[in-house]
Amino acid sequence: MAIYPELKGRVAVVTGAAQGIGASTAREFAQQGTAVALLDIDEAGAKKVAADISGARLMCVRTDVTDDQSVTDALARVAGEFGGIDILVNSAGGYGKLTGVEELPVDDWDRTVTLNLRGTFLMCKRAIPYLKKSKAGRIINVSSISGRTLFGSTSPAYAASKAGVIQLTRFLAIELGPSGITSNSIAPITTLTPRVKALRTEANIQQIASQIPLRRLPDPEDHANAMVFLASDAAAYLNGVSLDINGGRILM
Description:
The chain has 252 residues and is of the alpha/beta class. The chain has 8 helices and 7 strands, in the order E-H-E-H-E-H-E-H-E-H-E-H-H-H-E.
């Protein structure tokens, strides 16, 4: 793991921190000496992740990223406890089932788009006033390979919402650049998270891995390392970028 000394003492907010990419990202920032707020609707899960992290300033806040008041209150708590916010990582997201448009229930569409796109929008919107007070404000949104191109089986709602996350990130890059805030996203390929393992069979996982030049699916840490880099001073001039973290499967 690369070490970025400048991240020590900064404050990172990570949503979806109870598992998967969010949990790994919280751990990686903590190892950098960053103060980390673990936000998740599953507060018990976030506390379990935090209990395995030592030597870092941590706090867990139950947050429904789709609810404006919940987001507003959570960020106020974090800023009050840690004295500000420097880094926002929007990792909360997902979808319910693999299906086509015709078979997809409208309620599933609404829930997926609300979680992935509205949730990211609300977190960014309410974090901006705090990030403007930082000397190194960073927004890092988790999109997906499904938001960049059609790859394998996925949810149409998930693909559409994750494409929206990328475009929202670009808009933020232009809007917030003059305030010294960078906004970037990552676009992971199917990742070996608990959610993916529950949704897909082992045969399906191996079939996907066989199409990747590196011949493996990434672990959550592969994405966490990229986001720590995007938060560092080494990435200070990267703005509006979508990092394709897919082992070379899609080259754009």
